Predict the structure.
Amino acid sequence: SSARLLQNTDLPSTAVPFIGGCAGGFVQCPALCFMEAAKCNMQVSGQLRAESYMAMFHRRMAELGLQRALLPGFGITVSREVPSYGVYFLVYDTVKDTLHNNL
């Protein structure tokens, strides 16, 4: 885990959950990019019955290639998800420690 990797550093204790959250946010970005693009395509397709995610994946791969099919909007997604997950994990860890010490 990231906490074990960052354990023996000079970082403040609040940096560890923030960095761990940022790493988690970054790792989930490729799947999120594809799923959001697929969802948007399904919503605007106008078909009575939407195709499955796997069918959408195969169609997008054939039309757009690997990078454009899987990572549309990757940069903006990373800039949104990475800091927000870092803050989320930091707040969660801080509240958890505060409640544990006061209850």
Summary: The CA atoms of residues 17 and 34 lie 27 Å apart. The longest helix spans residues 74-102.
